[in-house]
Q: What sequence folds into this?
């Protein structure tokens, strides 16, 4: 198989497939890894795919010039995953006449849309702990940039791909998330199927809310899960990402975007932490503009402490024996739940007991089993 970048190192950004003039690239999701396979019978060897691919055409990365922590007004913060910085910036950018492109969940897909409608943009809110699919968005952004300013929010690998696709553009603003890795959507589907749900039937899906670290599905049939479930155990323990994520070139304090958003882990604002606190790393003047225009309460942050509490700012997630064993079980056809239990028995048991205790009202949601 001839591939655009090194075998099993594709991040699934879809940019090469979108850019190929002969449409002869197929992105193969093999669960453990993605690959961009080229149909050599159709390929004209123009190399556009390589110029677009962030693994071949490596992006420029910049050190932050400013760093802050903070939170958006309560009504925005409550429906956001962290401190609500993304939604506060989206709102002000649209009110200032711009378009925003980001990821949303609809019809079982984690796809990207571009809009200047505040109602539609509200659907962007929330972290999707899965490999999202930017197919089609690069071209739409390129078209929109001819007349308007555009803000793109996505994973660092997607921001890098976009920059390669559209080249330098004065009216393009970019925000990347701190990202420790993403699993294939096929794993999420597998987990949901085992739990009696179908991804394509869900109206909405939330991976993390302010009251819950489980995977909440909201289709009027599904009750809220109360403790961290198998899916979140596997995700937060880094056992289910595609192979490329364990050597992610974006796992450093030098960033590809104008502004980087994440969680302010290790913050001294412990009371505020329950409602989420955003970490904001500003790389450029455009990043500063984005922060200035948003309605947010900002505080200083100790950068060394923030890095120490967020490994993705210094090194990628580590590919452990547990990850190897987990993927082997999946390849053997074992269920998601049994594969997770096989590698994380204590964590799964602890969370299962926690869920039972919450149901019996013996501990509160967000509480611990030591209480
Ligand atoms: C897979 C993943 C891993 C992460 N890992 C870390 C980490 O290790 N450390 C850390 O500090 N923060 C991490 N984050 C970021 C964190 O969870 C929050 O998304 C971030 O702090 C922004 O929160 P917010 O409240 O400002 O905005 P939110 O309301 O959470 O909005 C987030 C924005 O990001 C976009 N987005 C969400 N999920 C995806 C996705 N899968 N692909 C592309 N765009 C997406 C949304 O469309 C929205 O525009 C991760 C996020 C994701 C999606
Ligand atoms: S070299 Fe050109 S034609 Fe061939 S796969 Fe790449 S973009 Fe497509
Ligand atoms: S451009 Fe993106 S999808 Fe294509 S090979 Fe490179 S990383 Fe994979
Ligand atoms: S860890 Fe790196 S390569 Fe993997 S999804 Fe996140 S930014 Fe992309």
A:
């Amino acid at each position: 198989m001839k591939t655009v970048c090194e075998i099993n190192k594709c991040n699934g950004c879809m940019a090469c497939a979108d850019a190929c003039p002969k449409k002869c690239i197929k992105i193969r999701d093999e669960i453990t890894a993605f690959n961009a396979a080229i149909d050599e019978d159709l390929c004209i060897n123009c190399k556009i795919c390589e110029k677009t691919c962030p693994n071949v055409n490596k992006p420029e990365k910049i050190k932050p010039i400013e760093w802050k922590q903070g939170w958006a007004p309560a009504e925005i913060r409550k429906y956001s995953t962290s401190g609500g910085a993304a939604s506060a910036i989206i709102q002000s950018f649209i009110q200032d006449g711009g378009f925003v492109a980001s990821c949303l969940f609809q019809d079982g897909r984690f796809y990207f849309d571009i809009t200047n409608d505040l109602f539609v943009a509200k659907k962007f809110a929330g972290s999707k702990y899965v490999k999202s699919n930017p197919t089609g968005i690069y071209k739409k952004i390129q078209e929109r940039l001819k007349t308007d300013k555009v803000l793109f929010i996505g994973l660092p690998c997607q921001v890098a791909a976009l920059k390669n696709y559209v080249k330098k553009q004065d009216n393009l603003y970019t925000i990347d998330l701190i990202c420790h890795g993403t699993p294939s959507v096929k794993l999420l589907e597998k987990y949901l199927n085992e739990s009696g749900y179908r991804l394509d039937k869900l109206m909405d899906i939330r991976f993390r809310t302010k009251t819950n670290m489980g995977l909440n599905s909201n289709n009027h049939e599904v009750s809220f899960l109360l403790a961290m479930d198998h899916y979140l155990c596997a995700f937060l323990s880094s056992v289910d990402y595609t192979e490329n994520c364990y050597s992610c070139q974006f796992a450093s304090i030098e960033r590809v975007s104008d502004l980087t958003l994440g969680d302010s882990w290790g913050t001294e604002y412990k009371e505020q932490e329950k409602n989420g606190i955003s970490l904001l790393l500003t790389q450029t003047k455009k990043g500063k503009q984005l922060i200035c225009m948003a309605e947010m309460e900002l505080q200083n942050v100790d950068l060394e402490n923030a890095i120490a509490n967020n490994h993705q700012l210094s090194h990628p997630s580590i590919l452990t024996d547990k990850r190897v064993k987990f993927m082997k079980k999946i390849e053997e056809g074992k269920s998601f739940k049994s594969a997770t239990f096989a590698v994380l028995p204590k964590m799964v048991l602890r969370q299962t007991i926690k869920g039972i205790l919450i149901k019996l009202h013996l501990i509160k949601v967000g509480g611990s089993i030591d209480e």
In short: Residues 220-224, 367-371 have pLDDT under 50 and may be disordered.
